[in-house]
Each structure stands twice: as C-alpha cells, then as structure tokens.
Design brief:
The protein has nine helices and 13 strands. It is an alpha/beta fold. It folds into two domains: 134 residues; 163 residues, 3-Layer(aba) Sandwich (Rossmann fold), CATH 3.40.50. The two termini are 19 Å apart.
Amino acid sequence: MKKSQHILIYNTIFDTPLEYPKEDIPEGFKITTDRKHMQDAVAVVFHLPSLHSPIFNNISRYIPQLHPISLMGRRLRKKKGQLWVAWFMECEANYPQFRDPSYMNSFDLTMSYHLDSDIVTPYYYYELNDTLRQPVQEKAAGKNICAFISSSFHKSGRLKYLKTLMNYLDVHSYGKVLRNKTIEKDTGYQTKIDTIAHYKFTIAFENAIFRDYVTEKFYDPLVAGSVPIYLGAPNIDDFAPGDKCFINIFDWDSPQSLAEYIMSVSKDEALYQSYFDWKSKPFKSNFVRMLDQQKEHAFVRLCNKIQEIN
C-alpha cells in the first residue's frame, strides 16, 4: 500500500481546532498538525495572521539557498520540492506584509479570499444555495436598522461613517463598538441572524476596503432577510447573488443623502420589497459558479492542486 503524503497544517486559525471532512481527503494524502512531519511533508500550510512572532523576516533571501529560518522560535528548513502555502482570510489592509513581494514570494501557493488564489477560501459557502432562499420575515415595529461591529479594525473608515450616519438614522448597534442595544440571551451566530431578521436594513461595513474582501458582513443580512447597507469591496457586484439586493454607500455623496434614501425606501413598502425580488429569481451565473467551487473543502482542493503540480 502506497504511503500517504503528509500535508502539515503548521498552525490553525488562531489556534482553533482544525475541522475538515476527513472522509473527503483524496487517497494518498494525510492532513496533520504534528510538526514532526515538517521535513517529510509534501506541503506545509501556514496560517499567516495567527503566527504571533515577527516571522519570515527577509525570508526570501534564505529560502533559495535552503538556509534555516526562524519561525515562532523554531529553526525551520524548507525541504527541496516541498510546497509552502500561505493561508489567510484577513485583509492586506490590516496585514500589509501580505502585499510585500519579499514576504509573499516565499510561498508557492496561496489559500485566501482572493478570487485569483490557488485555492479560494472565501467567506461565502456552498450552502448559500439554500439559505439565501429562506423567506423574508415580517419586520418588527420600530426596528429599522441594526449593526453588529465588534472589531476595532476600521481601515475602511467605517466607524467614522457610521457615527455620522447615526446623526440622521436610529441605528440599533449590538456589537462591542458603538453599542446602544444589548441581547439578553446571546447564543452566538443564530442569535445574530434571528436579530437581524427583525430589521429592514443592516449595516454591512467591512473593516477594510479591498478587492474581493467580502465577508459575512454582507452575507448574514442576505440570509436573514434584511437589506445590507454596504461599505467595502469595490467589486462587490461580483459577489452579489442577484441584482438590487443591497444598498452601496458609494452610490451616495454623503451619509446624509444615504440616510434620506434609506428612509424613503423604509416608508415605501413596494420599493422596499423590490430589494428581495432576487430571492425568487435564478442566482447570477457567476455567483453560482463561485458557490459550486466551494462544494469541495479547501483542503480537498489543496490536495488536488498538489497532485497537479507533482
């Protein structure tokens, strides 16, 4: 029986347990987090944002000569023929080293949210085919706009914009940032979705503005049946399941003019409901292709990519 090739996950996403469908991993591969396989692994996957020390400093000048390098206090050597994989879903605006060629050229493959990654690992997922079809709930009285922002990252300027917008609109903010509302029994993700479902609109402001960086901020309201008010990726239309499913703040010249439009939509039931027409229509063909790509787990696609290379 042929010996399995190891793919070492050097570190998991912020030290969380590694979860993946083991039964789907192609024959001949074995995923491991045991670093004793550092030298014999066919590929090593580094989750870049959760490497806590100054890593890969000037790494590119070491790797071609196969010199030892320092990583998290360990001296590492890249074996000849071994593939190193850069894994991240966080935005380069918050991690500028991801845009530094001397840093990124150290890696052979990328697993990231970018649509041109070797293995695309985005915030959308295959099951959206079903969850986006859920009916829209009737909205609760007095619940017009909600927000969930808990991260202090705001390279997008979202906090400043939201503060200004709140001068014109009554925004119920449940996150750790700008909080003015609380949830008594918060059990996590489902509580968030259930809360959003009661509101007509949801603030969907990304922490950075970058191509392809479209997170759950955009998709959670769509799933819950609320209209996202979006600030973020310049190519957001590429990620939308249908036409007229969100409000893009960049279509207005100021927070005040945006607020005036939101209020006009809120008061016109027919206009408001038109933001859900997409739910009863076929999804955009490009969006369907994007979802279909995610039917296979990223680690399965990584194995397939390694087979192509070797």
